[in-house]
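As a warm-up, study this chain.
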Amino acid sequence: MSMVQQAELEGAVKSYTDPYLNQNLYEMKAVKSLQCEGGVVTLKLSMPYACEGIVGGMKQILMTNLEYLDGVEQVVIESEQNIASTKAPNNVPALSSVKNIIAVASGKGGVGKSTSAVNLALALSQEGARVGLLDADIYGPSVGMMMGFPDGTRPKTEADKFFIPLEAHGVQAMSMAFLVTDDTPMVWRGPMVSGALQQLLTQTKWDDLDYLIVDMPPGTGDIQLTLSQKVPVSGSVIVTTPQDIALLDCKKGIEMFRKVNIPVLGVLENMSVHICSQCGHHEPLFGDGGGERIAQSYDTVLLGQMPLHQTIREQTDAGTPTVVAEPDSEVALMYRDIARKVSAQMAEQSKDARSPFPEIVISSD
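Now compare it with the structure written out below.
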């Protein structure tokens, strides 16, 4: 049996390019160790973003590449995820138990923002991340119903100081809906809403989260601006529909986050095409290509184009969103693809934040 050179092993691993970061595993700093003893190659990986759905395919490709080398008899690949924290802009203090906060926002209501936030949180969880979901839509909280919590569900408290988040489908959740009745209107001014949200965020005992998804209130007014400046948000996702009026408000949402230095991770276009439940015919009822044009104009990413389908609404209303109700469906797989895109972008941001400053040397010469 011929000896396998380390350079050959590394070359075989480098031949795999990650589809979301467009880098090889060494460039991603994902390779913890690579060695060969007695013809057995052991590769240990630490992936920097939530990508459970593609790990199986990645391992198969790497095994094929390594087994092709002369002298390799067996390949063992171990993989884990190590999601890093991303520093929030504007020097807003981070939460000790939350690595990254992602705001899901929209310039106007009725575009499926909450549905997107819930399914994004569930998709990130299925991709292997620890995820929380904060319903920041104080006036119209809907996350409780969407996640399947019965009416009247209340969180437990600890030392009369912290709320213990509720959990459903593997995701931790907190909402104003858990603290009031369905018949209680929130007749509050902006400062009261901002204070309530900050209390929900900081007085909830989140349990070691990789991502906290915040379902923001619709619009771009004083409340949204205040929340963006006082909550340690690391990135944002803008939800829109293809309609021209929705796209106008989408632009305002992007501009708002840019003014407060919060990166826009991408645009998610809902209701991009109607799928007939009877014949399966596809028709763009609300226009075509709007989300893509916005993404290009603002140099951001079109994360996905979700269809207008009756089952998405039915499953969400029933408390079992599509990602958990039909995990192998086309729509669920689209949400998981979006989750990997968002997580990969957050990994890039955290890597940039960790980049060392150039060393400054003072010499008397």
